[in-house]
Amino acid sequence: MLGRRQLREKAMQSIYAWKMSGKEADKRVIEKNMLKGVDQIYDLYIYLLNLLKFQKEIAENKMEVAKNKNFPTANDLNPNLKFVNNPIFRFLEENEELNNYTSKNKQLDWDMLENDYPKIIFNRITSGSEYADYMADKDESFSKDRSFMIDIYEKYIAADEDLADWMEDKNMYWSDDFHIGNSMVATTLKSFIPNSNPGFKLFKVYKDDEDRDFVIKLFRETLSHDDETAKIIDEKAKNWEIDRIAAIDLIILQMALTEFLYFKNIPPKVILNEYIELSKVYSTENSNIFINGILDRVIKDTPRF
Q1: How far apart are CA 106 and CA 87, in angstroms?
Q2: Which of 124, 212, 233, 270 is the most exposed place for a label (fewest CB within 10 A)?
């Protein structure tokens, strides 16, 4: 499931879109697109899991081609099967949720004839030192198998900027969420254990209806109290006029203050920590320090009715 931090991130992106429209865009349309974007993260997650699983199919295809050469070598006829026998591939191949969802959404699968990019990834994986070391290691260890898959995923898929561009062309809702999808995949891989079965539960977008209600309320309340929170921030930002604060920094501050004032069940310390972490991703280092100071001052000095 997405954490509250990721949901805050989606709300922040949508609030930014509204502000960039000059506050003239239809809030209902932006909210609808925000919720659709959250739902689309699950599709991205499934697509990335299938991309990793597809690496085995590419490897098996290459081995079959090598065996059928006119003059196959001994290695061609008796290839090292350690990669294709990695148990993580089996878990993905057998996973009921992954298979059922993919069968209903064929666009989330990969095809040997139509998709060239997975082969590029495969060539990078098999040319890397991680692959060479793994294939040469005679020790059979589930921990090593899992660590290897996590390593190659993070290095050759998650960190691939070209793949991020590919994803943006595939689905406009994925452009800002590639890192979230990658985090979900990495966590899934880390969650597999030696006896994981086909019923292993994959991530859900929302933990429950409460999480969905949270992101809707955060979006609506932040927009509803835009003038109020801007005024409070302006009063607390000593020697710093509000129109000099970067747009995204101001949104982070306003969202945090909105939560502080109108989400009474969330402790102030949690709010402070969550938005400081968000600022580390979306703000510069100097902005991050500025946001930290303003938030700390606002939360300490502002009554929570």
Answers
A1: 24
A2: 270
Instruction: Locate the domains of the chain by residue range.
Output: 25-191, 225-301
CA atoms within 13 A on the CB side of 203: 28
Fold observed for domain 225-301: N-utilizing Substance Protein B Homolog; Chain A (1.10.940)
Amino acid found at 190? K
Contact by Cβ (8 Å): 230, 254: yes
Nearest to 255 by CA among 284, 285, 286, 232: 232
Residue 249 has pLDDT above 70, yes or no: yes
The pTM of the full predicted model, rounded to 2 decimals, is 0.85
| CB distance 254 to 19 below 8 Å | no
